[in-house]
Specification:
Oligomer: single chain
CATH architecture: 3-Layer(aba) Sandwich
Low-confidence stretches: none
Number of helices: 7
Distance between the termini: 10 Å
Strand content: 15-25%
Order of helices and strands: HEHEEEEHHEHHEH
Radius of gyration: 17 Å
Number of strands: 7
Structural class: alpha/beta
CATH class: Alpha Beta
Number of domains: 1
Mean pLDDT: 94
Largest sheet: 4 strands, mixed
Length: about 170
């Protein structure tokens, strides 16, 4: 049975949303600052996949939608190299197999930075472009480039509208 929400009921339910921050996420003061300033409730605990997800009361969305945040292209390049790539891809394989939607948020970067090689890795821009786009296609990732000042707002908005859609579908 699907619940039909009025707009007021929907807003009231979504106002209970708490962002989950993975306990392994270390450098995110700019995101905490946004959450605190805008009264976005958050809770730090372990996430099996991704850096951010959400919950409404006791119902978690971590098996439905997660956000994987990268601080810059140097971090992306590290994740695309050697053992780190294997760990990163295992996480993406697990997410896809479990039907988890993954948003890949990359701060301090644009496609121009990739094309121009504005990162510390010795990998070519063609290699980095190919790796990123292959992962986007292979794991159905949604890739978003942003400025750090936008990250907190994007994390909250992605999770809010994902939760909204789940509620509207009766999930």
């Amino acid at each position: 049975m699907v619940k039909h929400w009025t707009e007021n009921e929907l807003r009231a339910e979504l106002s209970k949303m708490i962002v989950i921050v993975d306990s392994k996420e270390k450098v995110y003061d700019h995101i905490k600052k946004y959450f605190d300033k805008n009264k976005v409730p958050y809770k730090v605990r372990n996430l099996e996949t991704g850096d951010y997800s959400a919950m409404i009361e006791n119902l978690t969305m971590e098996n439905d939608v997660v956000i994987e945040r990268k601080a810059n292209l140097n971090e992306v390049c590290t994740n695309l190299a050697s053992e780190d790539r294997l760990r990163f891809e295992r996480e993406l394989i697990r997410a896809k197999a479990n039907g988890i939607k993954v948003y890949w948020l990359i701060e301090n970067a644009t496609w121009s930075d990739i094309f121009l090689g504005n990162y510390r890795s010795k990998a070519t821009s063609k290699s980095i472009t190919g790796s990123i786009l292959s992962m986007v296609a292979r794991y159905d990732l949604t890739l978003i480039f942003c400025k750090p000042a936008e990250t907190g707002k994007l994390i909250h908005a992605i999770l809010y509208y994902s939760a909204r859609e789940q509620l509207l579908r009766g999930q």
